[in-house]
Specification:
Elements (H helix, E strand, L loop, with lengths): L1 H14 L10 H9 L3 E2 L10 H15 L8 H11 L7 H20 L44 H4 L1 H8 L4 H5 L17 H14 L14 H19 L8 H4 L2 E2 L12 E2 H4 L2 H4 L2 E2 L20 H11 L5 H12 L2 E12 L4 E4 L4 E5 L3 H9 L3 E10 L6 E7 L15 E5 L12 E7 L1 H6 L7 E9 L9 E18 L3
Length: about 500
């Protein structure tokens, strides 16, 4: 028992550095964790809710802090400008730590220790929440936004079916963006996973203004709630849907040193330890990411929203040491995760696509071979490599199969629809960066009656409403159809 007690306290301190556990008993520490702050859907809170008022106060106070204080609003945004990883598998853990310390700074400045940052569920509510509008007198308002107050984000980016499909992907690399090594800079762009490439990038582009720029996006207060929704997606994916993060040392051993604690002191945090934060430091409400009922699309059955709500409730119930031990084990239980390539069907030339001129990319990939792969438990991906990224607030790409008349107005309910991907420009002051995207085409291939010896991939550039386009051409260096196999071995490194 005494060894368990010491291990628990060590784990609590390591996992949530800024929490104070040194003076509490084993049982009272468990109680503190059971009652950790609850991050709630912002649209379930009234405008005068203490959480909303505290967030307004924290933003105002950060903006008033001296320029030399690292907790200053602009300095907090500059952490993102100078250090944020995008397009690789540090995207999720880096932003988790970023949100954690931001939330803790809000708690300190407002004197509200149970403050928990709300999240914006853009699946359920695809318009920017009302509390973020008004005028300069509202600290949550950002005048640079290009989205209108009642303008919904396209369901091809945040819709129930699209996000439900992403949440059903059990492969961490596919879900969470591509691997890089410990030796590589944390800002190396490798490839965008489905969560980052579609809803994450898409929301940044749809909101526009500050939100559409790497360096400025955290200056818009909606940024923090957008990324908190991404965090909720990850927590649900792992803990509620019981999927495994990678246990690759190149991921778990990465340190970040650019964050500051509530008193303005620099900290050194680790990806592996960060897996404990949803268990030790905060929790989310029991609302599932994809609500039920989901609007019928005719493509897939509505997601089991009630199932996920019950699983959330179970995850949030921490009453005994056994409950806590189980959560700790799930937080730290990783897997050897690979996306094993079985076959490749490349397109022989680069592609240039213009707004208003959808591309018809014919790839020599026999549909019979693709369907056979699906019957063997493999998947079919469409991969786009060397894609230009400087289109964040201009347009996003919709992808279809065998749909020569596809247009920007073709909905995600069309049976030929594969998915979409959007951009978050990664020009950090040097040469223009290109990125890689891949979409799972398995469901589309399965439901379509394809024949012949090739597959036509249709790419449609879809402008955001009422935008003056700075760019109207997308370049893709290489396109291919891949047959891949998920290799997920729990407990194996």
């Amino acid at each position: 028992m005494e060894q368990n007690r010491r291990e628990f306290l060590k784990m609590a301190v390591l996992g949530a550095g800024w929490l104070t556990f040194g003076g509490c008993s084993f049982e009272s520490c468990l109680q503190q964790i059971a009652n950790r702050p609850i991050r709630k859907d912002v649209n379930t809170l009234a405008a005068n809710d203490p959480i909303i008022q505290a967030y307004k106060s924290a933003v105002s106070q950060m903006k008033a802090l001296p320029a030399g204080d690292p907790r200053n609003w602009i300095n907090q945004a500059n952490i993102h400008a100078n250090h944020c990883p995008h397009g690789n598998w540090f995207f999720l853990p880096w932003h988790r730590w970023y949100l954690t310390y931001f939330e803790r700074i809000c708690q300190k400045l407002t004197g509200m220790p149970d403050f928990a940052l709300p999240y914006w569920n853009w699946v359920k509510d695809p318009t920017v929440p009302a509390v973020f509008w008004g005028d300069a007198g509202n600290p949550l308002y950002d005048s640079t936004r290009q989205i209108a107050p009642n303008q919904a984000i396209d369901p091809s980016l945040v819709g129930c079916s699209v996000v439900g499909t992403i949440m059903s992907d059990a492969n961490f690399i596919d879900f969470a963006s591509d691997p890089i090594t410990l030796a590589q800079d944390q800002r190396t762009v490798a490839g965008f996973g489905s969560l980052e490439g579609t809803p994450h990038n898409g929301v940044h582009g749809a909101v526009g203004g500050d939100m559409g720029q790497i360096a400025l996006s955290p200056r818009d207060p909606i940024f923090w709630l957008h990324h908190n929704m991404i965090e909720k997606c990850w927590v649900e994916w792992q803990f509620v849907r019981n999927n495994a993060n990678t246990n690759d040392n190149n991921w778990t051993s990465r340190h970040f040193t650019e964050f500051f604690d509530p008193d303005g002191n620099p900290v050194d945090v680790q990806v592996g330890i960060g897996q404990l934060l949803p268990v030790l430091s905060y929790q989310f409400d029991s609302l599932p990411v994809v609500p039920s009922p989901c609007p019928a699309t005719g493509l897939t059955p509505p997601p089991a929203g009630n199932q996920w709500a019950a699983a959330w409730e179970k995850f949030n119930t921490v009453k005994t040491r056994a409950d806590q031990d189980a959560l700790k084990a799930r937080a730290q239980a990783g897997a050897s995760v690979k996306l094993e390539e079985i076959l490749r069907f490349p397109l022989g030339a680069p592609a240039t696509i213009a707004v208003g001129r959808p591309a018809r990319l014919r790839i020599s990939a026999p549909p019979a071979s693709l369907k056979m792969a699906l019957s063997a438990g493999e998947r079919v991906l469409i991969r786009f490599d060397g894609v230009t990224l400087n289109h964040t607030t201009d347009f996003f790409a919709k992808v279809f199969i065998a749909k020569p008349d596809a247009a920007a107005s073709t909905p995600d309910s069309d049976p030929h629809f594969v998915g979409s991907f959007a951009f978050f420009n990664h020009d950090h002051g040097g040469a223009a960066v290109r990125g890689n995207f891949h979409l799972d085409a398995s469901a589309a291939v399965k439901r379509l009656d394809l024949a012949g010896n090739s597959v036509e991939v249709n790419v449609v550039l879809t402008p955001f409403p009422k935008r003056v386009l700075k760019s109207n051409v997308l370049e893709i260096a290489a396109t291919e159809i891949q047959i891949v196999k998920d290799v997920i071995e729990r407990g194996v490194k």
